[in-house]
Specification:
The protein has helices at 55-71, 84-102, 108-136, 141-147, and strands at 2-4, 12-18, 21-27, 32-38, 45-46, 151-152, 163-167, 174-178, 182-183, 186-187, 191-197, 205-210, 214-217, 226-234, 238-239, 246-248. With 251 residues, it is of the alpha+beta class. It folds into three domains: 2-38, no CATH class; 45-152, no CATH class; 163-248, Immunoglobulin-like. Strands 11, 12, 14, 15 and 16 form a five-stranded antiparallel β-sheet that branches. A four-stranded antiparallel β-sheet has the order 1-4-3-2, with no helix packed on it. It has a three-stranded antiparallel β-sheet with strand order 7-8-13, with no helix packed on it. Helix 1 packs antiparallel against helix 2 (84-102) and helix 3 runs antiparallel to helix 4 (141-147). It is globular, with a radius of gyration of 23 Å. The two termini are 33 Å apart.
Length: 251
């Protein structure tokens, strides 16, 4: 809060909207008061690697995440992650499939990729589990995330937002726009997946995927705080992590 002298004699109130700050200026003969409400970003994490990671490094990093959640050294991971045993089994199976590839067993490369994607599917469940705990404990969110051998998302600095929402024609209609996927400055043929949540990101509902970086959603609840997020997939880049969610109020 800033308080300073104001030479203006006429009482006035002015509201200025300029995201991410909303400012209220109250002027009186004696003083001016500025109030700023700052929207603090939610601290969340990411795995720090994808299914395209080298096989050996992929196993090491996956095993580290499993071991950290199992050990629960900081006491944050409660109730326990329900798919922890399944993740352990999937990693062990992947190690066997990698050994088959090294032994040049027929069909082993395809089997290895199936096993690797299965581990990644469970890792993303583990990441959601960790992020939900971090969401409920923002004061120690960084420790919750790094304690599980995941990475804390870096704050976005300028540039075009990953995801934008605007009200469309008609009630409960929302139009979503994302950044089109690029690699080395060239646009890629990609699939875009979309989700929404009406409980602050605790549970997510799927929106039909598209082959373009935009979509229109109908039947949204009017005036209800709704979160949206997206991710993309291409043969060259693989499946991305979910974007940071945005909050929107459909009309």
């Amino acid at each position: 809060m800033y308080i300073g002298a104001n030479p203006i004699g006429k009482r006035q109130i002015r509201i200025i909207n300029n995201n991410p700050f909303r400012k209220l200026m109250f002027s009186a003969p004696e003083l001016t008061v500025f109030l700023a409400i700052i929207r603090v970003p939610i601290i969340k994490g990411n795995l720090g690697f994808s299914v395209n990671e080298k096989d050996g490094d992929f196993v090491i990093k996956s095993s580290a995440i499993h071991a950290a959640i199992f050990a629960n050294t900081g006491g944050y991971y409660s109730p326990p992650f329900g798919a922890l045993a399944a993740l352990d089994t999937a990693i062990s199976d992947l190690v066997l499939r990698i050994a088959d590839v090294e032994a040049r067993v027929y069909g082993s490369e395809a089997a290895k990729m199936v096993a690797k994607r299965d581990v990644m599917r469970l890792l993303k469940k583990a990441l959601n589990y960790v992020n939900n705990i971090a969401f409920d404990n923002q004061v120690v969110a960084g420790e919750v995330i790094t304690g599980a051998k995941c990475l804390v998302n870096k704050p976005r600095l300028g540039g075009k937002a990953d995801l934008k929402a605007v009200n469309g024609p008609g009630y409960g209609v929302v139009r979503l726009f994302a950044k089109a996927l690029k690699l080395n400055g060239k646009f890629l043929k990609a699939t875009y997946e979309w989700q929404f949540s009406i409980d602050a990101g605790r549970t997510w509902e799927n929106i039909p995927f598209t082959n373009k970086a935009r979509t229109t959603v109908q039947g949204m609840l009017r005036g209800i705080e709704t979160s949206f997020r997206k991710r993309d997939y291409s043969e060259k880049t693989g499946l991305s992590d979910w974007s940071d969610p945005i909050t929107f109020y459909p009309l």
